[in-house]
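Cross-check.
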Amino acid sequence: MRARQLEVFTAVMRAGTVTEAARMLHISQPALSQILLHCEGELGFRLFDREKGRLRPTPEAIELYPEAERLFAGLEGLRRKTQDLRLGRAGLVRVGASAPPAMAILPTVMAGFRAHHPDILLRSNVAPIAALVAMLRAGDIALALALDDHLPPDIEVEPLGATGFCCLLRQDNPLALQDEITFADLEAETVISYRGATRPHDELDQAARRAQARFLPELEIDVSITAVGFVQAGLVVAVVDALLPWGQFEGIVVRPLAAAPRVPLSLLTLRGAALSRAEDMLRGQIRSVCQQIL
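Predicted model, tokenized:
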């Protein structure tokens, strides 16, 4: 029994008449009758006895009907799913980000995306860049946002903008009275910042040298947000990216870093890997939000 024949058979079983079944399927009565006759010819037995304009199911039809309903429900589900995918109403979006864009970019991105595509499942991960690369390679995420553009050859990099650096300190630190903080100011402080051999650390080190100063963090971190607790405790001054909305943390004063370098915000994908329609739509949303913010 072909898909169209299955559809007609279940419609007639439900409706009980050719007229009502044809109305349900939006086809003419002669067309529906022809499909039924062709189906019976292929099966080699009658499905209905014709009695005064009505169709009475044969025992064979009654036996087939439960299985036909199950198959028809599956067919209808498949049709709805394909239509949803075509219209962008269903699917899965897997995105990862380092902490700064995860807090500064993704909330706006996902709020706008959900407003237009409420049926799409969103799955996000926050991790350092090395972990994001591993997740892209493993297929755990399809898109990633990170503050770097020096990536391995198998990672496709799309520049979205750039951000600078700032200093985090407590209100009782004398440097909080200044409008900005220099690299020379930091030499007298206990500094927490990115570990060595990372893009942010290298950029800060080079900028300090240009300013004829030194940049020597005594505490090193992989994820910038982990510096907050140390600053709130009064142990350190943090030098971190200026992308993350630091002002939301209690007891934190934010000051610009003079002569600060800039690091790129990049959208990462696995080179050669195709994105789903839903993931491609989220990529467009990310681009749009970054154009407004950066």
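The mean pLDDT is 90. The two ends are 58 Å apart (CA to CA). Passed to J.P. for a second look.
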